[in-house]
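Hi F.,

I've been meaning to write this up properly since the lab meeting, where we talked about keeping a consistent format for the predictions we share between groups. The idea is simple: the sequence comes first, exactly as it goes in, then the structure tokens exactly as they come out, then a line or two of notes. No screenshots and no reformatting. I'm using this chain as the first example so we have something concrete to point to.
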Amino acid sequence: MYMFHNQDLLTIPGDILIPAMFDVHYPGSLPYVCGDFRYKNGFQNTEAFKFAIERINSGNASVKFNAGVKLGGIGFDGCMDDSRASTLVAALYAGVYPLENGRFTTPLERFTHWLTYSNGFTIGTASYEMPVVTPGATSPLLDDKTKYTNLFRTIPSDTVIVKAMAQTAKILGFEYIITLNAPEKGARDSLEEFRKYLKAEGLCIGASYEFETDGTMEQLIDYIVSSSSRVVAVFADPDRHIEGLLTAKSRNNAATNIIFLSNRIWSNPMISDVPLNLLAYAERSLMFGMPQVPLPAFRNYLSNKYPNTYHENPWFYQFYQDFFKCNLGGNWKYPSSCLNPNGRPIITCKLVYLPLDILFKLIISGDFDQLLFPCFPASGSFVEDYTVLPTIHAVEAIAHGVHKTLQLKCGSDYAYVCSK
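Output, unedited:
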């Protein structure tokens, strides 16, 4: 456990705590060690978590606690390594991590449902009948409510997605399909479900490949090009493997007629800066899943955060550097230093005047989020990750359950967490 003692934690004080296992980093080259910062589909979940908790405590959410009770949370970084995440949880309940001045001070008795993202970790946690709400785990295995009785999702199961993919393939007359999946449990589970739906539609899989396991991106594209089918069903998150896949396709003149079917929406910005519009090489693709939608209230929340003054989220400093592609004090990842980090927000909100008829309609409808000043990315590249809204929904769902439980156990006028 010595390697975990200096790990960053996100802590939000409260009378009831939501423990969360995020994936802020990619896995490292060795087990239990974190790798590169997960700029896309990782960090934003931590801010969505904080945003939702603070909105509930301020009384601006759909669910409200009685005065005297505050919701809080504690966030860990599993680094997309299920073994690491499980070890952290085991150490937490054993009282040996995290330590403050050599002492274990985490109030486990205040914990409510876990918030999880990884498919493998979610399946393992839910298997022990721990209460779990997941805004990220889409594995079809989790559909079994007789087995996972204490699990709830705020994101659609991939069962829905792969069924639509199979039905679309049938309609378009794709008889043989190549599959390509990420080397992780959720992607493999989704692939197996896809096989079932293809069989039901009378379609066949001509070949199956896995990123990393079956060769380099160039080799995978060569395999596809040498096949009689040009239709490839891809099962992977957009921030991993997809950039490399499209780059390899762009370099192979024989790959121009490949058609991708994806269980996630591929959208810019990609994980890193590339002097090439990669999505131009995905123009013959069909993408399934939830689009990233602008969230005015969340953007307004981010507009007030600067790296030299905002220290509540231990990972914001790194995110700011990766977002603007610049260096903050003592770092040398990018060619230049960040300019005026105290005056350059990630999101810029501008005051505009709405016509009175539209303003009146928004007030009557109660859509107060739309009354916020419209917020625009400072660098033009900010897009909400696809799990941001499910994260907000997950926190609010847990809070609603806690509120109802407090009313039941402590009375409708509860002013503290009773011991019942």
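Notes:
DSSP finds eleven helices and 17 strands in the chain.
Residues 141 and 189 are 7 Å apart (CA to CA).

If this format works for you, I'll send the rest the same way.

G.
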